[in-house]
Amino acid sequence: MNKESYFGSALAGLKTLFTGMDITMGEYMTRKITEQYPENRKTQHIAERHRGTLVMKDQSKCKACGLCETACPNGTIKIASKMVTKADGKKGKILLDYQYDLGDCMFCQLCVNACNFGAIEFVKDFENATFDRNALVQHLAVAPTAEEMAQYEENAKVAAAKAAEEAKAKAAAEAKKVAENVEPAKEKEA
Amino acid sequence: MFDFSIITTWFNDLLMGFCPEWLAITIECILVGLLIIVGYALLAIVLIFMERKVCAYFQCRLGPMRVGPWGLLQVFADVVKMLIKEIFFVDKADKLLYALAPILVMAGSIGAFAFLPWNKGAVILDFNVGIFLYTAVSAIGIVGIFLAGWASNNKYALVSAMRGAVQMISYEMSLGLCLITATILTGTMQVSGIVEAQSGPFGWLIFQGHIPALIAFFIFIIAGNAEANRGPFDLAEAESELTAGYHTEYSGMGFGFYYLGEFLNLFIVAGMTALIFLGGYAPIQIGVEAFDEVMGYIPGIVWFLGKAFAMVWLLMWIKWTFPRLRIDQILKMEWKYLMPLALFNLVLMTVCVAFDLVGSIYSGIAVAAALAVLLAVIFVRAFKFKANFDKEQELVGVPQAIKKDK
To answer: Residue B406 — very low, low, confident or very high, per pLDDT cuts 50/70/90?
Structure first.
């Protein structure tokens, strides 16, 4: 039927009305999507990708390189690090403090993307309200203990001694080499 | 069926026993008036709560859940809030009309409310031109709405009042024509007479009057919806265009009166539909004696309220489905479609009655079967939709995730 005509348009209109009522009736019957938040804490579902707060996933992976600190647009992250000698004698940075200010964070995830070692990540915890702004400043890293620091000192001494010994040995070898080089020259002259 | 007039007669005799007739009648009038107002207020509370819940369910929400168990006390909290709000007069308003308008709306609404048949013997305003007077009384509300817009001295309120008046005066036409159509079949305008005419097996008007009665029913619902100023005919209260509508400048209980009036108009329209087309307080009768007997034991007020609330629910379904119409669309719909159809239907009904084509039990059974099939189709489709929806949700993985968290 012609939808422009008097009766045609009336019938077409009527049909769309019933289509609409059909759809809303179905909607009336469906499970309601309302989440009753404080009561449903145990069952509530938060999207996997929700970014609630930053946490240190695995501190041993953190190399205190400071890439996250540099990547942060807000200056949310402040890293304190120290150059120490590890047990194998090699020098490296260790993390003294990882200060994260939740109040400044805009949850852009640039820090997580910047991290080459997968040490930090965002988790879904979202109940972050506090009564004191200072409580929002969090320290994510466990600071090294006095023993550990002492161990590092020890490592450094051992390494220094080793280095000195090596240097000595090297110097001796060098001297020997020089001497050997000198000998043939003398022989030539003779 | 229980006849409420036993109680009223007993009460009348009791009063007549110790006081003169004029005093007895005065006391009775005051009591009935109080009962009407109390019933009005109680129904308003029920309707507001129902509106909020039904609306929420149509929008896939839960509605009020916080105040009281399942949100049951929400409306009481709202009423208390409304009552303690300050009522202030707009500076340049027409003070007399401004104060008068909400009272007129309430008067029209309560007046129309008094026509509803609650039970056998409990029809409050019951005389030979009942339905006719009902149309006259309910029209007072239009004056209230128009005065509110005019007296507020606010351009939005005025535009809204103009829209409201135009719409309500227009749809009064179809409403009246449908009432006349029904009156042709029942042969009386008396409220109790209309109900009596609809008792008996398949006696309801939509069963008795088959096609013309169904058309009249359809038009009556649309026109009644417009008359109650509810969506999709709520352009007088188009919040997005007119801040609030004709009651923009009202606060506290002044606004509360309009709010109440609107909800009660919804109930009055639903109740009138139940009275005229669904047999008022008359129970379902199918001609099988045992079944009819059992149905007859259910009191009339239960039948009436059940039918009226079913109609209220239908009107809410309509309201929360369709978008608002434009003023020209509303007028076009009334004057070009509904009114000619109502006039044609009037002729059709007259012909049917004149040639005795109505009132047969077979047409009643046919209509009842058709309605039952329609309801079945609606629910089957709705449950199919629900199943599909749940499946889709499962595909998205929400329920699994919830289960895992548990």
So the answer is: very low
CA torsion sign for B175, B180, B185, B188 is positive
Phi-psi region of B187 (alpha: psi -120 to 50; beta: other; left: phi over 0): left
Q: Which of B53, B219, B339, B385 to mutate to test the interface with A (most CBs of A within 10 A)?
A: B385
Judge: B389–A26 Cβ closer than 8 Å, yes or no. Answer: yes
pLDDT in tens, B233-246: 877 776 777 777 78
Tokens, residue B291: 């079944």
Judging contacts by C-beta atoms under 8 Å, the chain B residues touching residue A8 are none
pLDDT in tens, B306-360: 999 999 999 999 988 988 888 888 888 889 899 999 999 999 999 988 888 887 7
Give how far B164 is from chain A: nearest CA, Å: 23
Residues in B closer than 8 angstroms to A31, CB to CB, are 386, 389-390, 393
Q: What is the mean pLDDT of chain B?
A: 84
Q: In the numeric block, which tokens belong to residue B106? A: 């309430």
Contact B55/B314 with Cβ under 8 angstroms?
no
SS3 breakdown of chain B: % helix, strand, coil, rounded to 5? 75, 0, 25
In chain A, residues with a C-beta closer than 8 Å to the C-beta of B59 are 27
Give me A46's structure tokens. 């938060």
Peptide bond into B102 cis (omega under 30): no
**Residues of A whose CB is below 8 A from B56:** 32
Query: What pTM, to 2 d.p., does this model score?
Result: 0.80
Record: contact A34-B383, CB cut-off 8 A: no
ipTM of the complex: 0.76
Condensed to tens digits (0 to 9), the pLDDT of residues B8-34 reads 888 888 888 888 888 888 888 898 899
Place of tokens 């939740």: A102
